[in-house]
Amino acid sequence: MTITLQPVKGTRDFYPAEMRLRNWLFDIWRETSRQFGFEEYDACVLESEDLYIRKAGDEITEQLYAFDDKGGRRLALRPEMTPSLARLVLQRKNALSFPLKWFAIPQCFRYERMTRGRKREHYQWNADVVGQAGQTAEVEVLSVLLMSLEKMGLSPEQIRVHLNDRRILNAILEHIGVPEALHLPVMVVMDKRDKISGEALDTQLSELGLEAEQVSRLNDFLRMETLQQIGEALGHAGHAGDAGFSGALGEMRRLMETLEAVGFGGYCQFDITVVRGLSYYTGTVFEIRDAGGKLRAICGGGRYDSLLSAFGGDPVPAIGFGFGDVVILELLAEVGLLPELTPEIDYVVIPFSKDQVPAALTVGQALRRAGFRADADFGFRKLKRALQRAGEIGARKAVLLMPEELERGELVVRDMAAREEKRVAVEAFLASPE
User: Fold this and answer.
1) What are the CA-CA distances from residue 269 to residues 65, 225, 259 (Å)?
2) Beta pairing, strands 318-324 & 345-350
3) What is the largest CA-CA distance in the chain?
4) 139, 156, 242, 309: which could join 315 in a potential S-S bond, CB 3.0 to 4.6 Å?
5) How confident is the model at residue 237, as a pLDDT?
6) Count of Cβ atoms closer than 10 Å to residue 397 Cβ
7) What is the pTM of this model?
8) How many other CB atoms are there within 10 angstroms of residue 302's CB atom?
9) What does the alpha-carbon distance between residue 170 and residue 152 come to, in Å, rounded to a whole number?
10) DSSP string of 29-94?
């Protein structure tokens, strides 16, 4: 039997070069999260299938990697992290101190059609604020997200935050006479706007029960570009103190103003077409997209105040996002911002014969005990090739065990960047490596 050497379709292998890039990205995510006071958590990649089964027909339910285990339990590889977060919070709700500011970098799996930037597994940065009502949580979540993108070198000329509110969408659907029971299924279809043609979208809306006039009026709303247009069409002024959906218009204005005040206004725009396909969103929703619109959404999230109650708990205000690794690396490559990363080695110790191995091991261990990252090259290459190899692995310095110098009790330490060498007594070097 021939065993395939390729990874499972839609998954990836990470050789050291790819791992350096992945770690670089994860380091930015972790560092930025901690700057904002978020704490890291994790959960098992296996969950009960019913954690992801929802009545609104979310695509995610159809994309599960689900199976029966040997005990007959229905399990699934997690497709997203938010339900696991809700489960963790509900388990210890009475012992936790709210608000929670938690982040994770889970691996997620979805059996979906693969296109550019879309695979069947990906790593995803999740950051959530649980137990804090009001727009401060929105501002914090969007700020940590945008600061991470700035650390990658991205600017408003390259990325945009598209903001909307589910309550505004509900108001539109109510305004055109769509029954409340159809609101969530209609939004799941609306979220496919970037994936299928307009004709196919209209057909799916009609199949849900919308009349042709309702579909036409909905499309008219989706072509509106400003909050003012939406407010006038709904017959609401949209002040932040107003009740209901009119208040949502005012809150969106205030959110945009606050993001401007904290220095991120240049990234943000209102976009009535942003829906987010997951049924548990209740208020603010957002997506980050490349300015050229060539890629799928880089990141998305929103407020999900009713998710915990859907799992049997009391309602708890919550907001967060999921930021996948695949699309952002595509974008950074396209705009020339991917870093050139090499192994980070302080020293490589180079012996030139087998009888120098004990000395090489002693020097290497002294360097490590002194806090340096030290490798040893036991290939016994000629000097030129040994130095070439030291450069290839990114060594900052090379310790050469030259036969004559070593016999005199000296080491040759070479600065790889400056191409300068100096001789150092073995005992002095071991006592205090530079």
Assistant:
1) 36, 9, 11
2) unpaired
3) 94
4) 309
5) 45
6) 22
7) 0.90
8) 26
9) 36
10) HHHHHHHTT-EE----SEEEGGGS--TT--HHHHT-EEEE-TTS-EEEE-S-SHHHHHHHHHHTGG
Other beta carbons less than 10 A from residue 121's beta carbon: 18
Cβ neighbour number for residue 141 with a 10 Å cutoff: 24
For tokens 């914090």, the residue is 140
pLDDT at 60 (0 to 100): 77
**Looking at residue 277, what DSSP letter applies?**
S
Strands, E assignment, 277-357 = 284-290, 299-303, 318-324, 345-350
Report helix, strand or coil for 412: strand
Q: If you search the block for the tokens 């990205």, which residue do you land on?
A: 25
Would you call 434 helix, strand, or coil by DSSP?
Answer: coil
The parts of the chain modelled with pLDDT lower than 70 are 54-58, 236-246
CB proximity list for 110: less than 8 A, separation 6 or greater: 60, 63, 64, 65, 79, 120, 121
- Other beta carbons within 10 angstroms of residue 148's beta carbon come to 24
pLDDT tens-place string over residues 21-34: 999 999 999 999 99
Q: What is the Cα–Cα distance from 250 to 48, expressed in whole angstroms?
A: 40
pLDDT value, residue 244:
56
φ/ψ bin of 155: left (φ > 0), alpha (ψ from -120 to 50), beta (otherwise): beta
Q: Are 320 and 16 in contact (CB under 8 A)?
A: no
Structure tokens at 242: 């107003």
Beta bridge partners of 376: 349
Distance (Å, whole) CA 227 – CA 347: 59
Domains of the chain with bracketed CATH: 16-334 (3.30.930.10), 345-431 (3.40.50.800)
**Backbone dihedral angles phi then psi of residue 104, each to the nearest 5 degrees:** -150, 160
Q: Where are the alpha helices (DSSP H) in 209-269?
A: 212-222, 227-234, 244-261
Q: Show the tokens assigned to 401.
A: 């065990």
d(CA 81, CA 420): 52
| Residue that has been written with the tokens 């307009």 in this structure | 198
Sign of CA dihedral 61, 62, 65, 69: positive
C-alpha distances out from residue 297 to 1, 107, 119, Å? 42, 18, 14
- What six digits make up the tokens of 220? 């008219």
The burial class, CB within 10 Å (0-12 / 13-18 / 19+), for 64 is: buried
